Fold these 2 entries.
Entry 1:
Amino acid sequence: MTDKFTIEQIKTAFDKSFEGEPDEWDDLRNDFIAELTTPQRTPQVGEAYMHKGDATLYLGDCLDILPSLGKVDAVVTDPPYGIGFGYTGKYVDDGGEKYHELMLSLKQYPLALLQYPEQLIDLCINVFGQPDECLAWVYNSNLPRQFRLWALFGLTADFSCFKQPSKNPECNKVKRLLVNSYDWWEQPQVKNTSIEKSDHPCQIPVSCVERVLKLIGIQSIVDPFMGSGTTGVACANLGRKFIGIEIEPKYFDIACERITAAYAQGRLFA
Ligand SMILES: C[S@@+](CC[C@H](N)C(=O)[O-])C[C@H]1O[C@@H](n2cnc3c(N)ncnc32)[C@H](O)[C@@H]1O
């Protein structure tokens, strides 16, 4: 079909056929157009993007895409772990220098950064200085370290939006960071048996990101290390605008699917 007509021509024809129809049909029309414009095969890096609801997703390197986005209200992200960690058998974040470059690219934005492991915390302090506030996501695991810190730079958290603004100022890690305020909450990790588990090795829980989004209250979010799209799902659930960037086609596809499903579900229960 698209061999004979351009997508623009099909959209125009389709729009005409909806003229005079009730407003409720808009969603149907938008879904049809989204289907039409979503690539049907796994795209190459830099080639694809997808719009769904209030989300725009890019397949590519955030170092290339971030500068083209213009003003960004806030970055909320869980950057690649451990320096030199191979996600799909190849090294995406291939050393301290690259990592430093990635962190520098975020320096200009109000930022909520999930910090893990230790090296990343030290590296972040070198790049960003001390965080303004810290949130600790606590979970059970077999490892001695059972929490990860969300560090806020240029953002403030409204702790009053939760009934339990638990502070733990005696925590050594927090003391070391000398932050202004601190909150923690318990939340299980995504396990292989979790309903939300996708094929991404480092997926974090949607409700963990939702908590951060509620605390910072910003309406428009960018995640430059989108992975399986968890931040995008949280944004869809909370009605926030979202831009996501992911370098691995396999994870980009997972993110597209999860965010599409989140919007579809939102409409079902609306
Ligand atoms: C820790 S994971 C994010 C996981 C995510 N929070 C989730 O719940 O699925 C970091 C992601 O960043 C991606 N990544 C690494 N370097 C990147 C770059 N330069 N640009 C965009 N994405 C990158 C990796 O492929 C990986 O999927």
Entry 2:
Amino acid sequence: MPVANTIEKFWSYVNKGPKDECWIWQGPINSTGYGYWGLQGAKWLAHRLSYILANKLESLSPDICVCHKCDTPRCVNPNHLFLGSKKENWDDMRAKGRNSNGKGDHSGMARLSSPMVIEARKLYATGNYSHQKLAEMFGVSKSSMNKAIRGDTWSHIKDGLTGYDPRKYVQTHPDVIPKGEKAPSAKLTDKQVLAIRQDYTSGKYTHVKLAAKYGVSKSLIGYILSGKIWRHLEEVS
Ligand SMILES: [Zn+2]
């Protein structure tokens, strides 16, 4: 990945505006209207590089496209970008009939494709991205993402599947430290954790408000919502 001073140089071509406005690339533009930037002997699409930098990606499969929510090719605001599938992959998938066996998720706008599933599982395996974060990055629902990563859906795509099911492991290995409400230091019950997540999803509560409501620290709420702890409860919800 690029070193710090080249990253700085890259951003010097961008007028960073408010989070929800387009940030227009001020550097060179290619014949199709997209900004580009030469880096380490290669020509990068500016919005693609912006997304990679903003999300601290080590790399990004060429099968994955960085798409615009705002339909502004010169925009490099990472908040306006999401990961999607290249058109070729959709055609490829249809040709192979993968889209018609009900295993993939293609309901409404929330659509994953096999390259997206492989990339998401790879990112998840780094430990740096929660299901929630990946769902946002790929523009799909959290439950679609959960299922795809676990292999409940897209089980025909083996890449990135570990075959490891924590539920079975805990049940068959009594020496495993109990998680959740059975853990010695538990401050919350399973039920409360699920309620916290539900409250948060409703959009009415901030982390601070939830901490006050359930009488726990703000950081504990953060851990629960990011899936750092009580992750096993995702299996239930
Ligand atoms: Zn934009």
